[in-house]
Structure formats: structure tokens, C-alpha cells
């Protein structure tokens, strides 16, 4: 069965996914008009994720038995590097190609996925906290039919189980039971609550109590300051002065002063000798 009009998508997917890089299983450019089946499964998974690897065979079984009549599958990859991405290109699903896409800033170290940030933001916008996140959308209305495909296909589903799940989706109902969703919600939120309580206890109870017991922090000892003025001796000062080099200007001034002093001695010596002779004559 094929749609008479292009498939519709929920706003969260229309705004969050890079549709300008949407391709089919052969890597050829595609669009929403390429999705012709009544149901579209969007599978947010990655090769490095163990639960995703466990779910992958079940998604493949759905595609194998219902791709011709009921289901189109869009693979939304959160692979970390290009090698993992190229391996997933072998899957017969619609996907988002990395070719000729600039890698944005703010990615984790060594991450080569240009859609890493947008895909994770879409997962969170769907109300999920991690992957695998696999949803079923009614392509005629753009309504999310099932948000817990991983729960509906958990374990070892048989072909009859898969056919029953597809029939539920075609009828607009979730294939996962209330008990499955409740158990998942309890387990997930129990972990989240545990870590939040532990963080609250550590930051608001344990740490303040530890500070109260240990008292205020002791100030760090100040470094000893050496009194240069008191420890510098006269001899050291004299040695420093004697060791300083005389500048050319000072040397010139010293030479000029020596020459002036010598000239003064030459002029004053005869006068002093004459004055001494006159004094001797007076005494006689």
C-alpha cells in the first residue's frame, strides 16, 4: 500500500533532522515524497551502543517482512566516526548522508558525525534520555503512534509478534503494553532519582558537615621576606660600588679634573717657593 501524498512528520522531527541531506538506501537524494508506506519507523541508534545492536536484528525483521506493504525505516545514526557510518550505509534504510557536510564546532573529541548535536537534541525533544530511541509515525497524519518500539520488540520476538506489532501500529495504537512502559519508566526514573539524591546528599549535607567538623581552613604560611636593608653590610656595598664599570663620560670628566689639578700645581709651586724665600730674608 502506498500513500497518495508525501509522508508527514511530527514537528520535532521536521525541525530537528537534517532533511537536506536525506538519502535512500542507494545513497541517492530523497525527500518526504520518497516515503510511500503508511508507517515510518525512525530509529535513533549507533554501532557503539550494545542495546542498539540487540535491537537491530528485530528492526531488520520488520523491514524484511513489511517493507513492501506497511513500513519505511529511517535510520538516524549517532555513529562516532566515519568507519562506523560507512558500515551502516550497507543497511537497506533511508538515512542522512555525511558527504560534503562541514563538521560543526562543539563536538566531542575525535567525533566525525556532523549531525551529532542535532540528533541528540532530537532524542531529548522526544522525551528520551538515551538510545535506542525508536518511534513509529503515521505517515498520513504525522502522528507518533508508538514511542517505545524497543520495548515492543524486546527479547526474541517471533514473526507473529512482529506482525501483531505492525497491526497495532496500523490501528494507531502502541504495540508495547502498559506494563512494559510502566516497568521501563520505573527502572529509568529509579536510576535518575538515585543519582539526583546522591548528588543532593553530597553537595548539601555531606560536604557542609565535613567542613563543619574540620573547621575553617587554615591560612597558608606566608613566605619569609628577606630584609635586604639590614643584611647588606658596608663591605658588600663598597664591593658593589668598586665592581661597577666606569662609563666613558665619567672617565672623561675624571681625566679633565686630573689635568686641571696638575696645571694648578705648576702655577702655584713657584709662587710658594718665592714666598718662602721672602720670609727667610725678613727673619735675617
UniProtKB/TrEMBL annotation:
<dbReference type="InterPro" id="IPR013766">
    <property type="entry name" value="Thioredoxin_domain"/>
</dbReference>
<dbReference type="Pfam" id="PF08534">
    <property type="entry name" value="Redoxin"/>
</dbReference>
<protein>
    <recommendedName>
        <fullName>Thioredoxin domain-containing protein</fullName>
    </recommendedName>
</protein>
<dbReference type="InterPro" id="IPR036249">
    <property type="entry name" value="Thioredoxin-like_sf"/>
</dbReference>
<dbReference type="InterPro" id="IPR013740">
    <property type="entry name" value="Redoxin"/>
</dbReference>
<dbReference type="InterPro" id="IPR050553">
    <property type="entry name" value="Thioredoxin_ResA/DsbE_sf"/>
</dbReference>
<comment type="similarity">
    <text>Belongs to the peroxiredoxin family. Prx5 subfamily.</text>
</comment>
<dbReference type="GO" id="GO:0016491">
    <property type="term" value="F:oxidoreductase activity"/>
</dbReference>
<feature type="domain" description="Thioredoxin">
    <location>
        <begin position="3"/>
        <end position="171"/>
    </location>
</feature>
Amino acid at each position: 500500500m502506498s500513500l497518495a501524498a508525501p509522508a508527514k512528520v511530527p514537528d520535532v522531527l521536521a525541525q530537528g533532522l537534517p532533511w537536506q541531506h536525506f538519502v535512500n538506501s542507494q545513497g541517492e537524494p530523497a525527500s518526504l515524497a520518497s516515503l510511500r508506506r503508511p508507517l515510518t519507523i525512525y530509529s535513533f541508534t549507533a554501532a557503539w551502543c550494545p542495546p542498539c545492536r540487540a535491537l537491530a536484528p528485530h528492526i531488520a525483521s520488520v523491514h524484511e517482512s513489511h517493507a513492501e506493504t506497511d513500513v519505511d525505516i529511517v535510520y538516524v545514526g549517532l555513529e562516532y566516526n566515519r568507519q562506523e557510518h560507512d558500515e551502516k550505509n550497507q543497511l537497506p534504510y533511508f538515512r542522512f548522508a555525511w558527504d560534503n557536510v562541514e563538521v560543526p564546532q562543539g563536538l566531542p573529541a575525535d567525533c566525525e558525525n556532523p549531525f551529532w548535536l542535532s540528533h541528540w537534541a532530537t532524542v531529548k525533544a522526544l522525551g528520551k534520555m538515551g538510545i535506542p530511541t525508536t518511534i513509529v509515525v503515521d505517515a498520513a497524519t504525522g502522528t507518533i503512534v508508538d514511542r517505545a518500539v524497543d520495548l515492543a520488540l524486546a527479547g526474541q520476538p517471533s514473526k507473529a509478534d512482529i506482525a501483531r506489532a505492525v497491526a497495532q501500529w496500523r490501528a494507531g495504537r502502541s504495540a508495547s503494553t502498559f506494563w512494559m512502559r510502566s516497568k521501563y519508566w520505573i527502572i529509568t526514573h529509579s536510576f535518575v532519582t538515585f543519582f539526583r539524591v546522591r548528588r543532593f546528599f553530597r553537595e548539601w549535607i555531606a560536604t557542609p558537615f565535613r567542613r563543619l567538623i574540620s573547621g575553617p581552613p587554615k591560612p597558608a604560611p606566608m613566605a619569609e621576606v628577606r630584609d635586604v636593608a639590614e643584611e647588606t653590610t658596608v663591605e658588600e656595598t663598597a664591593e658593589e660600588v668598586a665592581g661597577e664599570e666606569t662609563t666613558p663620560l665619567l672617565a672623561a670628566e675624571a681625566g679633565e679634573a686630573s689635568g686641571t689639578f696638575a696645571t694648578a700645581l705648576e702655577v702655584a709651586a713657584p709662587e710658594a717657593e718665592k714666598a718662602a724665600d721672602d720670609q727667610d730674608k725678613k727673619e735675617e
